[in-house]
Design a protein that fits this description.
CATH topology: Arc Repressor Mutant, subunit A
Order of helices and strands: HHHEEH
Number of strands: 2
Number of domains: 1
Largest sheet: 2 strands, antiparallel
Helix content: 40-55%
CATH architecture: Orthogonal Bundle
Strand order of the largest sheet: 1-2
Distance between the termini: 26 Å
Number of helices: 4
Structural class: mainly alpha
CATH class: Mainly Alpha
Strand content: 5-15%
Shape: globular
């Protein structure tokens, strides 16, 4: 399965967490706010577009059945997700690797 660089990064971060996590909590780590970003202007607009695109990455991982909701959103907290078996295998988690001989 082909994954984009952002899909690989987000999947790896979710898998590395080892517990249910909010995918969006990693967005600023993937695309940190630029130091020269003001409240308005092209730098803020470009960064905002990157942040929004990460929601598409999150949905893509879900649609590809690489992550699943472990704890549904409750109106105050977002969905918490974990990798599926296929997601763990693609993320390269040792628990999903076949035994070595």
């Amino acid at each position: 399965m082909n994954l984009s660089a952002n899909e690989k990064t987000l999947l790896r971060l979710i898998a590395d967490a080892g517990q249910p996590v909010s995918a969006s909590s990693y967005f600023h780590g993937i695309y940190p706010p630029p130091a020269n970003m003001g409240d308005e202007g092209p730098v803020r607009e470009a960064w905002t577009e990157q942040q929004i695109s990460l929601y598409g990455v999150y949905l893509s991982l879900h649609e590809k059945e690489l992550i699943e909701v472990a704890v549904p959103a409750d109106g105050r907290n977002p969905d918490l997700v974990v990798p599926t078996e296929a997601g763990r295998a693609l993320a390269g988690e040792p628990s999903a690797a076949p035994p070595s001989r």
